[in-house]
Prior knowledge:
There is one protein chain. Helix 4 runs parallel beside helix 5. Helices cover 39% and strands 20% of the residues. The protein contains 16 helices and 20 strands. The protein is globular and about 85 Å long.
Amino acid sequence: MKKMWIGGEFVGSHSEKTFRVVNPATEEILAEVPRGDRNDAADAVEAAAGAFEEWRFMPGVERADLLHHVAAACRHHRTELARLMTQEGGKPLIENLDEVEWVAACFDFYAQVGRDQKGRVIPPVQRDQFNFVVKEPYGVVACIVPWNYPLLLMAWKVAPALAAGNCVVIKPSEYTPLSTLRMAECAFSHLPSGVVNVVTGYGVEAGEPLTTHPKTDLIAFTGSLATGKKVAGLAALGMKKINLELGGNDPFIVCDDVDLDVAVRGAVWAAFLNMGQVCTSAERFYVFESVADTFIQKFVERTRALRIGDPLGPDVDLGPMIAEFQRKKVEDKIEEGRRAGAKVLCGGQRPPGFAKGFYYEPTVLTSVDHTMPLMKEETFGPVAPIMVVKGIEEACRLANDSIYGLGANLYTTSLEHVFYAMERVKAGTFWINDPLTDNDAGPFGGMRASGFGRELGSEGLEAFRDTKHVHLDYKLSSKPYWFPYDWSKARKTE
Ligand code: TXE
């Protein structure tokens, strides 16, 4: 039975209860994991708070060295961690191998950024004074992580949080805790006890107590809009800082001036990567009418050619969805679209020949419009609804007709289209001719209902640092404007 990582030790839950982790490709039980509760969450927060004083004042170069160590351990265990994520999450192994490298790169990035600067000097307002701004850690950061990128979305919180001098408590998703527990064993174990803690369990039982614990200073959350609202509400009661990376409903615009073979390959990948279970999946397509028929025909051809199978591979493009609840959500969305008149060009069913596993065929629909939830709500599955538009104005208007604003994609060779769309479309990341490429130096996060705060980039470090202005008078001189007042000046102005 697996154990949680708290205060530098592997421990069971106070409740002694466990929950099962299932392989979504085979529906077999992979492991029993402690079902963490309020007491376990409290132990982890206390362990993090206890380690804070030592960790926050560790010299930046030493902290950086330890974070580089985490990155090296990650790379050393890359295949094992990638296989674990594949078994518990269903993402193809080839994608998880990439994910582990991105995790290591994130720790390397913040090891360096974290030791670069921690404030600035500003000009004083009087002689014999010195003013400066100090950036300082908050203290204990709760990192609540979803199942679609279990290690990457954890690293985007933990690496900058640690680099800024905070200590953390990680609550992985109940669907994908194993890879994070293994990271604790092979990488976080190099850090001083209590700096990183991992509490496994369900959202309400283990996640909520982390959000409300008096010693939790900041909550960094990635997940659904619905749960993000709950976390934000509870954090507000305790006046805690939050960073929310929520859902998306990303538009994908294809103009009539591009190589359609390239645009189609990019679009199919953006739609069906990780079975569409990516916060920045391309969830809705807008194609210029003059190229729509050709685009749709090529898109369907490439979708039909996708290889569905065992995510451990080899030669597989798509694995299963994470769980029955997610597949059912997609099936209901497609059924609803069909009833409203949408046409399914391919997919729209479970693939034959899979007795087990939450498999679903990648699905392409046309005859869709913005009265359908398919185009307005996050589907988070292997579904590509395509609308035909007259031009860039209509495409941008429809792209913005959403409560979300996480990412957006555009294919064009026209600078006019680039600037028209880039300046108008509401999205935290705007990809042009290269969908979903992340950059550790580029801030990632949502506008509107997709959340607030940013991960990655210098913004991603700032999210985990508080600001203090220090004002120093080194002559200790008294001031003319102190008591008792000299009214003679006032009379002169009368
Ligand atoms: O997300 P949740 P789930 C969307 C996607 C998906 C839906 C539900 O549409 O269908 O969310 O997925 C923890 N207090 N995204 O259920 O509930 C939970 O244990 C504190 C988009 O996975 O948001 C898990 O660790 N924590 C998203 C984490 O929150 C709570 C990626 C996310 O769970 C909690 C994933 C509570 N009350 C899902 N309730 C993206 N944008 O990438 C749950 N949790």
